[in-house]
Amino acid sequence: MTRRAAKYRRISDDREGRELGIGRQDEDLDALGERADLVYVASYVDNDIGASTKSTKRRNDYERMLADAKAGHFEVIAAYTTGRLTRRPREHEDLIDLAVDHRIEFEYVRSPSFDLNTAQGRRIARTLAAQDAGETEEMSERVARDALRRAQQGLNHGGRRCYGYAANGLDVNHDEVQVIRDAAAAIIGGVPLGRIVRDLNTAGVRTVNGKLWAPGTLRDLLKRPRLAGLSVHRGEVIGKGQWPAIITADQHATITALFADPTRRTTTGNRAAYLLSGIAVCGKCGNSITSFGLKKSKPGEPPSTRHLYRCRKGACVARRRDWCDQWVTDNVLERLSRPDARDLLIDTTRPDLKGLRAESEALRVQLDEFAEDRANNLITRAQMLAGTERVRVRLTDIDAALLHVDRAPVLADLIEAPDPATVWDSLDLDRRRAVVKTLMTVTLHPGGSGKRTFDPSRVQITWTA
User: Fold this and answer.
1) Distance CA 82, CA 79 (A)
2) DSSP code of 88?
């Protein structure tokens, strides 16, 4: 007797999935249909989606198939194996419910077919479900151990090719290396991320997938420790990789610190158009300063606009924009023209990054040693936990200390120039704003004599130590 059936195929990244493409499953399921007298009236495919207990991807066709089965569109579900349907014991219970409540039958190419409407059949199904889940978990553990081993040895982790490197993960892609280095230098030099992205797209430079760059894509790339030659496992740096670094460790630390700064402007959308917009702060309430135009008109005269900086919150403070910009510019150039200007490149607050990184690597080795000693019963569980906690507290402190921005790249070309004013005039607004942010804090205070003259006491400049 011919039965209406649904054909379900799934391919994933496990061994069975790699060996059984959709085409191969189709051929075998068609042969099964002839043997079991099935007429396929529905077809469902989930491609590159796992069915294990740890998979978080939704299987849309699988869910649609279950709904159609409950609606009575077919009587049989055919799959290559029970594992192709699911490896989750909970989902096997759903399949049992389909059999009991909706009289759905199941046929498999390589798994035994059994009647889920009987206690014996349900016992077999639950046994197979437990075996499938166990095999998947064991495979996941092997993959995780191998990934850790490869990371510890500084080997390539596999996966999608990282921009800047060849497909083997160990050789550089020379066409992409300079793109990364230029972008890194621009970020450190104070250029907004959005502007770099715009320039890359305008120049026809594309991502590793051949797509346009987006701010998030470039940010995630530049933050990758791999670019500094560092090996990572589960988000933590655990040693040096066996591939060449594209940027230095100091550059990577600076870029990470810049991206961690919540006040950093990363996009040119709604970009600041004036020197102190979003940089200066209100001396009354502490909010940031924005620019606006105040229109004025007198009888018999054309209307005019006075451009001001004012508190973003309201009417706390308002100062003429051109006067403030000129005052800040004069102070910047005067400071950069002093004989001791080169001292600005020496950051006395900058930690010993090389020493901290070396300490971090040594501490991570200690964590591995604690785990190995515990596995060999050389220390108690309490001793392992105490030692691990102590090391992790220190690692947290080190990670925080490494988030220190090197200010030298922002100032170097100005300080080393014979005439800083000439270089300043050649800089675009983004670079000028980066210099101001690096050198000082500008606070605009309310009040004054009421005269239409500039009062420098109302524009407070606090130099960065």
Assistant:
1) 7
2) -
Whole-angstrom CA distances from 170 to 106, 151, 156, 158, 301 are 47, 13, 7, 10, 71
CA dist 91 and 79 (Å) reads 15
User: Residue 129 is which amino acid?
Assistant: A
**pLDDT (average), residues 84-108:** 86
User: How many of the other CB atoms lie within 10 Å of CB of 355?
Assistant: 10
The per-residue pLDDT for 462 is 93
- Provide the β-strand partners of residue 3: 38
Q: Is residue 177 within 8 Å of 246, Cβ to Cβ?
A: yes
* Phi, psi angles (nearest 5°) of residue 223: -85, -10
What number does CATH give the domain 3-139? Answer: 3.40.50.1390
- Name the fold adopted by 174-260: Hect, E3 ligase catalytic domain fold (3.90.1750)
3-state helix, strand, coil in the chain (%, to 5): 50, 15, 35
pLDDT at 14 over 50: no
Contact between residue 309 and residue 277 where contact means Cβ atoms under 8 Å apart: yes
- Tell me the CA distances in angstroms from 324 to 151, 312, 320, 329, 448, one per residue in order: 53, 16, 6, 9, 14
Q: CB 314: neighbour CB atoms within 10 A?
A: 11
The encoded tokens of residue 255 equal: 């870029």
The tokens describing 360, both together, are: 């971090």
What are the residue ranges spanned by the domains of the chain? Answer: 3-139, 174-260, 281-343+407-463, 353-402
For 217-240, how does the pLDDT look when each residue is reduced to its tens digit (9 = 90+)?
Answer: 999 999 999 999 888 776 777 778
Q: Do residues 254 and 180 touch, judged by C-beta distance below 8 A?
A: no
**Which residue would you say has higher pLDDT here, 50 or 455?**
455
Distance CA 363, CA 371 (A): 13
